[in-house]
Design brief:
Length: 511
Amino acid sequence: MKSIIKKLKWVMPIFLFGIILIPTIKAKALTTDSFYFEWIEPKIYVNKYKDGVERSERIQIYHRRSDGSVAYCIQPGVDFSDTELITGYDYNQASFSGMSEDTWRKVSLLAYYGYGYGNHTDIKWYAITQYEIWKANPLGWTTYWADSYHGNNISQFEAESAELLNLVNNHYKAPSFINTTTEVIVDDTIALTDNNNVLSNFDVSSNNESLRKDGNKLYITPNKLGEVTVNLTKNSNRFGRSAIVFVGDGVQNLMTGGNIEPYQTSLKLKVIGGKVTINKVDKDTKQAIAQGDATLKGATYGIFKEDGTKVSSITTDENGVVTSGMLPNQGRYWLQEEIPSNGYEVDEDNRYYFVITKDNLYPTVTVYEKVIERHFEIFKVFASDKTGFLTGEENVTFDIYLKSSNEKVASITTNKKGFAETVLPYGTYIVKQVTATENYEKVDDFEIVINSDTDEPYYHLISNAKIPKENIIIEIPNTSKNELSNNFIIALGLILGFGALLYVKNKNHKK
């Protein structure tokens, strides 16, 4: 126990010294000053009542001695001293004045919008402002206008008080269109009407819009897609400084008016643009159905502004359809194919124009694409075992099937010279001989592939001998007509030679 006491003898002085060193939390005074008053002319009186006590006063205007600025009493029922130095604070005013934050807010607004604000220059506005401050911070007193010193309570300045209170009550009132999300078209001007009639008190700003106020209408022309914010700010900087509360012991506390912190709010805009839809169709059939093995899917089109600025590229789906994203502006645009879909030629020479307006936001453009295709020609001959000569085989029919679907797409029949032709679009096909000359077999099914666009036909030269399994098929693809003539002479010589051998063979066999 003695050791504990011994230790405490060392601890206590240190503890007490520490307490002395702890700084006292005390607001720093801004300034000290005294005030003087002047009587208002013509004379204006008020009566005040509290707990059966009546006070009657003639309104007087208070001035701060250092700069002559106007001041107001904030303690009804407390006497004023024109000799006492009192301390002023331009921060934590509510706390120093003993008011709640809400009461201080109203009192400071009354001082701001009262005497000297706008057209409130007549001395009566000082009396009205002082009267409303007493009512806002009554401290138990009820205040009335009076017709004389200790005279009758009267009603006066009702319109002026209503005007002042309206300014105060509407200080934090925002335009009626705030807290809404408004949809607007890019480059289109909208007019928003403020039904609260307070828009004129706000400055409006934004980085992406053209803004204009006209009375209670706000005109907005957005030039950017997406969500955009329009800021509205009420700057209350009439005084160039904050309000100051002057507090003394046993004397009337006063205040000078000052700026109100800016009140800011905002409006959200959802800015939309137009979109273009492409309907891609086959140039020959005028239908959104691809020919052969071609497809409407995968065609890429560039979207360009009228001045040639590229906006984006879009690619068609399996139906040949695609819708762009939102376009950045209203105006004239054009489409141009950059990459064709499989089996089609690129349509690079055509521009498809369209216009985006607020009345035509979603135009549809039909674009055309030419399928890759080639002439397919058959020359059918057969050999006679009697003459040994090859003859054009007439009335031989061939059916042509798309390999991928086994769909019959064409049927051709040879003329008297053994010639037949058709045009086939991009794809792989199976050719089947349907009819034949009597006693002659049909050729086996054969496959052809159309995969390039050229003016040169795709030729097939076919010869039949009479004996089964001796069919001859000579194919000369990708050949010009001049080349075909030369090749045909060579092929025909081979066929004639082969036919002669067959003839001799058959004749010897008969012997």
